[in-house]
Design goal:
Elements lengths: L10 E2 L2 E2 H13 L6 E2 L2 E7 L2 E6 L2 E3 L2 E3 L7 E3 L14 H24 L3 E11 L17 E10 L3 H14 L1 H7 L14
Antiparallel strand pairs: 1-2, 3-6, 4-5, 5-8, 6-7, 9-10
Length: 192
């Protein structure tokens, strides 16, 4: 997508560059403007199925909601004893990484003046059920994640390599997967 301007904002790669630069300036001036909070409510649907619905979120302390219901149903494939009624939890995790990288490429390429014609990201993982099933003291975690990005652009290869390194280094989901993160969990019981 090439840059478009018509007496209005500068749009590059579908990103409003003027708004992007304004947001960067606001967060630079006060880090509180960049504070985010997201919430997802998960409802069990029986078996391995669940519905995940975003709740309220906040940006810079301002609470908001999505304009529409963007619920996603998850399940496991039949080969993993599910009914294949939705995307698997592992695929949801990989989708989150792909989505975050897509945002990073679109925004950072726009800020750098790089026009992207097409962007495709292939993400795969290797894992084992042994950890989930508590067999042989295996870790219940994926073993590796492999990402391959294909960018169609007229920008020089060196500029795309720099963009690639920057996007990976500044992707919140990438960094969350790559680095330990504090997890807090609690449970309440309702009696029937």
């Amino acid at each position: 997508m090439t840059e478009t301007t018509m007496t209005g904002p500068t749009i590059r790669n579908g990103v409003n560059v003027d708004d992007l630069l304004g947001a960067i300036a606001a967060v630079t001036a006060d880090g509180a403007n960049g504070r985010l909070r997201f919430r997802v409510d998960t409802k069990w649907l029986g078996g391995f199925r669940a519905r995940h619905t975003p709740g309220a979120f906040s940006v810079g302390g301002q609470e908001s909601r999505h304009a529409a219901d963007y619920s996603v149903v998850s399940d496991e494939p039949a080969e993993v004893l599910g009914t294949d009624d939705g995307i698997s939890p592992a695929e949801l995790m990989l989708s989150a990484l792909g989505a975050c990288l897509t945002v990073g490429y679109a925004a950072n390429a726009a800020a750098l003046g790089i026009d992207i014609e097409d962007l495709a990201i292939e993400i795969s993982t290797d894992a084992s059920l042994e950890g989930f099933m508590n067999i042989r003291d295996a870790e219940p975690a994926v073993e590796s994640v492999t990402v391959h990005v294909n960018v169609k652009t007229s920008a020089p290869a060196e500029a795309v390599q720099e963009l690639h390194a920057y996007v990976n280094a500044h992707s919140p989901i990438w960094q969350t997967l790559a680095c330990p993160v504090r997890l807090v969990s609690s449970v309440s019981v309702s009696r029937t």
